[in-house]
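re: that chain from earlier
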Amino acid sequence: MRELRFRQIHLDYHTSPLIEDVGQDFDAEEFAQTLKNASVNSVTCFAKCHHGMSYYPTKVGVMHPHLKIDLLGQMVETCHGIGIGTPAYISVGVDNYMGERHPEWLQCDQKGYLARPAPYEPGWYWLCHNSPYVDYVAAQTKEVLSNYDVDGVFFDIVIQKSPGCLCPSCRSSMTNLGMDIGSDADLRKHTTMVMANFLKRMEKIVHDVKPEASLFFNPRVSVCFRAEQKYYTHVEIESLPTAFWGYHHFPYYLRFCRTLGMEILGMTARFHKNWADFGGIKTRAQLEYECATMLAGGAKCSIGDQLHPRGKLDEAVYALIGSVYGDVASKEPWCVDAKPKVQVAILVLESPEGSLEMSEASEGAMKMLLELKHQFNIIDPEEDFQKYEVLILPDTGRISEETVTKLQGFLDARGKLLLSYEATLNHETKEFSCPGIGVKYVQPSTYSPDFIHLGETLSHTLPNLDFVMYERGAYVKPMDGTETLAEVYNPYFNRTFKAFTSHFQSPVDRKSPYPAVTRRENIVYVYSPIFQAYYQHGYYVYKSIVENCLKLLLPRRFVNSNAPPSSEVSLMEQPGRLIAHIVNYQPQRRGKHVEYIEEAYPTRDVKLQILTETCPTRVYLAPSRENLEFLFNKPYTSCIIPEVKVHQMVIFEL
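^ sequence. v structure.
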């Protein structure tokens, strides 16, 4: 496979067959030169869109009825002529043309409703990946790869509805396999089989025709992705933060995907809101920030756009993209093959159904670690625990016997754990599966909210107060040799219609017999769902408690900085150097819309301390190469960054 390019465009072209002037303004040379002038070095070109229209002369599918040229062919030829890559886009799960003509191929839910829009609403028809429709997709794929020198394939909307599809094809195959169509568990199992069969079939088709082609199936990236990664050549994380994804989605999945050993492409878009937001455009500061978070975490960049039906790229859009991608190009020497330096990992635990999912608890833990400038990954139970110094097991979830054994081996090798609430609790036996945790589970807390009284070890940096814990915790009993670091205090009573005082929770009344935070050897336990509570309530005290717990477990952290909590500091490594990325996030509210960055305001005199072990030969800013004064006080190197507007890299040559 060819190496992924750093500056890509994902160029949507979902175009209704009702539009008659399709492609009339397309000029292949102008198209390619516009991309080159914007420092773009790869563009995903459409072979087939959600409407089911193909953009090349096809013997398999349906060419857009008003397209007079081979749009795909001209894009590929002219872009290749000036060194721009061209993977092809094929819509899979959504195809309105075929969905309207073959309702028996549509996905069907448990109530018998077909996955299509209501009669008087615009929307998409969702095709089943277990129906004869897949033969149609396979033939289209072979046609595109055989007729055009595309660099890869991006299959989109590769999804079955949850928990599974009950179309005629799926009902038949489940019956033949002896599965119960009335069982959610069997539906999920069948869906897994269907998707694996589809991925395997398409991967073989693509690489039989073009062995070096890149291949990605969207949007299947999740914390269960490891089971499917063998079918992919790389990972693309579609994450438009100003749409429904938000600004926590990308950093979460980036920190998981980079544990898989694959190249990663981050994908945002130029739109103010979501895809096809024609006339919507981001500010430069916002787009620069979004690309900076990709580079800072070890990903390459893709910016989404949508080609106007007439086929002409918007000059203003590519002036914006070019201003950002020009900066990306200047930073690439310090990003090529850079690997993350991490100490901490958030271990995603299994849900009661046995699946791994992004949760409010794991997202809250990620938010804390980002704000605290810790260097971390998000991992599944199959990851090598020995790569990390501290594992965080947030709030809830179970673990297998195999994971118990891995945790014991991690602890035996002097690894450290921070876990909270009911993480690893077996709800049948009411016992924690985590080895050596040092507490026995008793019951859920009687009071909610209740309060936490911090001992001296955890109270520094915080005022002297019994702090409210908004979410119900768990009562546990310490075992012999377990140290209590904080205690639970009860209110007068729970707030009900029978008993309440004033406007909110009752104030603290008395000490309970249960601990709030305990420590036994290398394990710290917190009684509250503190990570989910931080996600829900954003109470800075919860973050401070976790930080003080981590100081006990991780006295020598890789990075210390006075950069504000909204800034991200990421440490990467190339042979002979460390690269610290400081990305300055400054959101402003715009009505009901998600956070927005209209203008970047610089942060000045940012103190940065990096664990280098040895004295650097040089510390400088990139890409300007301006030298910085630094102080080495073994094992740390310290410097002051004069200004960070959106993104600044500091290079420590060792």
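DSSP finds 14 helices and 34 strands in the chain.
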